[in-house]
Amino acid sequence: MTIKDAPEEWEIRGTETPFTGNKTSVRTDEVVMPGGAVVRRDYQVHPGSVAVLALDDADRALVLRQYRHPVRQKLWEIPAGLLDVVGENPLHAAQRELYEEAHVKAEDWRVLTDVYTTPGGCDEAVRIFLARGLSEAEGDRFAVEDEEADMELARVPLDELVRGVLAGDLHNNCLVVGVLSVVAARSGDGLDALRPAQAPWPARPFEA
């Protein structure tokens, strides 16, 4: 048996969108189950996201602390953002987010991992990149607003982040997945064996 996710789509008898927001919406589908029953499934429709595990030469990850209203916490996170344009190249979006949130650029980009954040209730797909060869970006800093205006920036040793994840002190999905993935990659075939930055992404197809 091959342990690999595979595309599949069960019959949908009907669909409606009871809520449409600024970036996402809620959809209700009437889905035919294997036994023939038809059930309603509500889920958030999401454009997709990118995130960046930016690692400097001192083995420190660039992290941000930001208020997240739904969970009423300030969370340490890695730079991330929405794929605002359908078909947008995820690498370009990740480079933009790293510049806007940290005013940093990177020379070496790899795909670290691809995840569905909450597939039981949302179709959000996230591509997490590994960025190395960091340097200060040129030009003016991006103007921040709302939650981002209160954002803190730090460079934290990777080992410290791993301890924080396993101790239950760090909870952001992309940070947890990114940090543990880079450690796993190192203990396996190495970081240079990761997929190239323009690797296909069936969950959110794009033009290279």
Automatic annotation (TrEMBL):
GO MF term (any one): hydrolase activity
One Pfam family this sequence matches: NUDIX
Domain Nudix hydrolase residue range list: 44-178
Keyword terms, alphabetized: Hydrolase
Entries under InterPro entries matching the protein: NUDIX_hydrolase-like_dom_sf, NUDIX_hydrolase_dom
Annotated GO biological process: nucleoside phosphate metabolic process; ribose phosphate metabolic process
Gene Ontology cellular component annotations, sorted alphabetically: cytosol
Name assigned to this protein: NUDIX hydrolase
Organism listed in the record: Streptomyces pilosus
